[in-house]
Amino acid sequence: MPTVRYENDDAIFYFDLQDVERILKLLISKYAVPEASKLLEKISSHSANLVPIRSSCFPFIILDLLKECRGSIQCKACGKTYPAKDLKSIPVGFGKTPFSVPQPSFKESTRLRMSMYGGEAYLCPEDHELISVRTWIS
């Protein structure tokens, strides 16, 4: 089965092509994301068994795939490869969604409103960071 490969400074990610195509098609049909259409066209026309991806939007797709426990990830720090189900998800900044932010006091609200962001990161079982994505900012 064809495999999609994405590499960052901390890890190498491997996903089944079908899983990546499914997520991209969902983004296209649900949200009309132009970058998803371009990526889908690129990976669908690739004839090799290993499809390398270099895209600034792919980390967002990786988060969706990891939430579904799809793929395997090679940690560069420890040199081991882990299935997605073995990774740890942690919040970044003020949390995974803006709805997870505690209500600030009136005094704090102005300062916080100007500098709030959040997202999600994944760690290998040995607590090395594999990916960190800022998914929202206010």
Structural account:
- The chain has 138 residues and is of the alpha+beta class.
- The protein has 4 helices and 8 strands, in the order E-E-H-H-E-H-E-E-E-H-E-E.
- Helix 1 (17-31) runs antiparallel to helix 2 (34-44).
- It has helices at residues 17-31, 34-44, 58-67, 106-113; strands at residues 3-7, 11-16, 50-53, 72-75, 81-83, 88-93, 117-123, 129-137.
- The chain is globular and about 50 Å long.
- The strands form 2 sheets. It has a 5-stranded mixed β-sheet with strand order 3-1-2-4-5. A 3-stranded antiparallel β-sheet has the order 6-7-8, with helices on one face.
- The chain starts with a strand and ends with a strand.
- The mean pLDDT is 89.
- Strand 7 (117-123) and strand 8 (129-137) form a beta hairpin.
- It has one domain (3-137).
Quick synopsis:
With 138 residues, the protein is of the alpha+beta class. 32% of the residues lie in helices and 32% in strands. A hairpin with a 5-residue loop joins strand 4 (72-75) and strand 5.
